Amino acid sequence: MPAGARAGAGTFWLASALLLLVSLGDASFRGSEDRFAEITREMFVGGDFFHPTINGAPHFYKPLGSYWSIAAASLALGRLDELAARLPSALAGLIALAATVGLGRALFGSVAGRLAGWILLSSYGFLLWSRTAAADMANLAAVVLAVAWFRTREHRPGGLFALVFLLICVAGAQAKGLAAIVVPLAVLAPHLLREARWRTHADARVLVRVLLIALALYVAPFVAAEIARGSPGFGGVPSASAEARSGLAMVFQENVQRFFAPHDHQGPIYTYLFAVPELLLPWSIAFVAALMAMVPAWKRLEPDTRWVVEAIAIVFVVFTTSGSRRSYYILPILPFCALLVGVFLARSPEGLAERSLGWTRLVLRLVAALEVLAPIAAAILWLAGFPVPPKLVLVTTGLGVLGLVLWREGVRPVLARLLGVETWVAPHVAASALLLGGFFCLQYPVLDRFRTEKQFALVLREEARGLAPDRIAFVRHVPALFPFYMDVAAPVRVVRDSRDLEEHLKGGSGIVVASRGALEKLGGPLPEDLWGPADWSEPEPPWDRSGRRRFQAWRFDGAP
């Protein structure tokens, strides 16, 4: 390997580790992250790793693999927290990067492969979901790893080759769902059908054996869950109660039924027309330019380049034809988009490729220039009553200055040698990685101080010491972050209506937690004579005065 290539590879993997791991556990849970963490916590507390629950209620909407990976991370770290919950996604991101670079290098050469890796690493959607406690990055990693394994080793077919391919798919299916099996097969279909390549892998005896092994490994956790059905779980509540659906039934509901007749998440048919460019930022325009350049020259493209375009189209169609659509469902398309852009930038005439990055260059430099003005913006916000943390101002200004320095003529050759890419594209790669990585690793953890749910939950944890969990009641709904941060040993109570609330208040000392919106929806006459000012209130940031989603808590000493 030439010295420049070695330097580029070293810089790439160092940058990958930094962008995916630095400050990974510093921010509190957001979105659905708390569900994955709380399910894993309840598995540890109840000693039941086969029946996912949230507050003791069955929650088998995802396979077991995603929770087991968080459990493994927590055992390795010696604690279960935000870092342990997000670490599996970050490691899956590293696997996806390795698979993408390896696939690109095998099909298009080291330059295109390295560019594809940088583009994937410095795209918004990839960084966001690699740093999120969820199953989606594991799904993406399984898809691209399975495809990369097949395309780079298809000249050595046999039982081991097929078995490893299917085991990668099964691992992804146990993390997220059947898409990790369907998508790789669909993506590989055009390649296998072309020149009847499928015949090379059509040994019926080998296929039957490996299919049976893969199927057995896939269903084994579900079978084990059925065998252990009804065993004591979180807080002594029998796990997977009789009315709960089995894991395999949920696989059917969440994969087959959701594809054809979803009950929620029914985004419009054009969802992914907007989602893919958003996930690819800031490389979206280069991706569109690559498509516009390659489609008219379709017949002149080499077969592997055509296959990448076909793979992108197939993934897009598969997810679009599903009745259930959310923007991040289509994450597995990103490695193939990165490959296409990498090939385009590496092999197109330099003038054409450089022009395609014109808008990308403009946006990156504009963002850097705006960040340099952070002190002025902070002063204006301070005068308006919105205090900005000094650390955020300092970090933002520093990122902006560095982001502008990267475009200086004397810096570009140094960047090119460090990154292992052409001089004209080096500042685009470096600026994208710097600005996006700086946001996720440095700026967002500081901004997280304005999110107050964790602070409030930790206050409740201290105030509820000595109370049985069933004497803690939440009105209408228990966000999973509360039992997680409060570290309750058994399910807390959920009151559904005013009568249920009165019963709780008269049952002895306890706590009631509710948001204003939940109280408004409670219905029926509230026991107003028992209410007074809240004992504890979740802080409100200056820009949110409605308070509908902010939580309050009251302590009661009702007569048992």
Quick recap:
This protein is mainly alpha-helical and about 550 residues long.
Please give the structural blueprint:
Layout: H1 3-21, H2 33-46, E1 53-54, E2 57-58, H3 65-77, H4 82-108, H5 110-121, H6 124-130, H7 136-153, H8 159-175, H9 179-193, H10 204-227, H11 247-260, H12 271-280, H13 284-294, H14 303-321, H15 334-347, H16 350-356, H17 358-372, H18 374-383, H19 390-405, H20 412-419, H21 426-447, H22 453-463, E3 472-475, H23 481-486, E4 493-495, H24 498-505, E5 509-515, H25 516-520, E6 536-537, E7 551-557
Parallel strand pairs: 3-4, 3-5
Antiparallel strand pairs: 1-2, 5-7, 6-7
Can you tell me about this structure?
The radius of gyration is 26 Å and the shape is globular. It has 25 helices and 7 strands. The strands form 2 sheets. The protein has a 5-stranded mixed β-sheet with strand order 4-3-5-7-6, with helices on both faces. A two-stranded antiparallel sheet has the order 1-2. The protein starts with a helix and ends with a strand. Strand 3 (472-475), helix 23 and strand 4 form a beta-alpha-beta unit. The protein has helices at 3-21, 33-46, 65-77, 82-108, 110-121, 124-130, 136-153, 159-175, 179-193, 204-227, 247-260, 271-280, 284-294, 303-321, 334-347, 350-356, 358-372, 374-383, 390-405, 412-419, 426-447, 453-463, 481-486, 498-505, 516-520; strands at 53-54, 57-58, 472-475, 493-495, 509-515, 536-537, 551-557. 61% of the residues lie in helices and 5% in strands. The model is unreliable at 240-244 (pLDDT under 50). The chain has 3 domains: 14-350, no CATH class; 357-450, no CATH class; 453-557, no CATH class. It is mainly alpha-helical.
